[in-house]
Amino acid sequence: MAEVKNIFTSDDLFTTLNKTRNSRKILKVFLFGSIRGGFYGFAFLFTLILMMKIFTFVVSSVSQLNVTIYDVLIAFYGFLISAFINILSMIKKIFNLSRNN
User: Is the pTM higher than 0.85?
Assistant: First the structure.
């Protein structure tokens, strides 16, 4: 079965992780990789919410375009979900690397 490529992590993180056994370096790989994936999720969801609000503003008779803190909070859920998925995919990749060695 074909393996699905994770767009939120790059392969250079895994090559760095494979070359070293330094705990600080491993923590950096997990931290920066998950933050980067979470940021992509946040940006995607916030852009989607903003586009829907703009579309609603243009099409309907709404006189104000409001972006509230709740919209940012919903986009933050996208950050959490993407970061969690990213961490799980990195753990899976590490176990596959250790199994192959």
Answer: no
Query: Taking the domains of the chain in order of start, what are their residue ranges?
Result: 23-94
The full DSSP string for 7-69 is: TTS-HHHHHHHHH---HHHHHHHHHHHHHHHHHHHHHHHHHHHHHHHHHHHHHS--------H
pLDDT tens, position by position, for the chain (101 residues)?
455 555 555 555 666 666 666 667 777 777 888 888 899 999 999 999 999 999 998 998 878 888 999 999 999 999 999 999 988 888 887 777 666 65
**Contact present, 61 and 55 (Cβ < 8 Å):** no
CB 9 within 8 A of CB 86: yes
Measure the CA–CA gap between 84 and 15, rounded to whole angstroms: 21
Q: Is there a contact between 45 and 78 (Cβ–Cβ < 8 Å)?
A: yes
Which residue carries 């609000």 as its tokens? Answer: 53
